[in-house]
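Task: sequence design from structure.
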């Protein structure tokens, strides 16, 4: 396991090699920013490119970081969440290229109990390259325990 993946595991329910993010850049009440460095070890890299639709997962994992950081800071367990939908995903390119660094920004728009909506953007060198609105469901710990039973 890489040191970066191990570092992010305290905020994410994901485990290496399925942690697609490289770092948590910023966390605040109104946003979370993560970084993805497209390199030779990047999952889904093929012929020097990662398909732009993988950006939805980068956004979803950044939402998980946002949620996980809140749980961690409140001494609560970091739990699973579920992506319910992505609306208006738009990418101004077909793929992310080897050597590029992506900045993924998620901003909560509606936090209503278990259902949450986020405005999401991906930037490369301050240029907007993808955007979407993602809706996620975060069940209570009790609901998760019931699913395990």
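Answer:
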């Amino acid at each position: 396991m890489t040191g970066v993946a191990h570092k992010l595991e305290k905020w994410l329910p994901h485990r290496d090699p399925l942690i697609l993010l490289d770092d948590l850049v910023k966390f605040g009440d109104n946003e979370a920013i993560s970084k993805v460095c497209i390199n030779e070890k990047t999952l889904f890299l093929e012929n020097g490119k990662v398909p732009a639709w993988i950006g939805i997962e980068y956004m979803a994992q950044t939402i998980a970081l946002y949620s996980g950081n809140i749980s961690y800071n409140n001494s609560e367990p970091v739990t699973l969440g579920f992506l319910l939908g992505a609306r208006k995903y738009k990418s101004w390119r077909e793929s992310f290229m080897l050597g590029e660094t992506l900045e993924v920004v998620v901003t909560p728009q509606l936090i209503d109990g278990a259902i949450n909506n986020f405005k999401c953007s991906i930037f490369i060198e301050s240029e907007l390259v993808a955007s979407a609105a993602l809706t996620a469901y975060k069940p209570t710990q009790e609901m998760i325990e019931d699913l395990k039973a």
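The longest strand covers residues 101-112.
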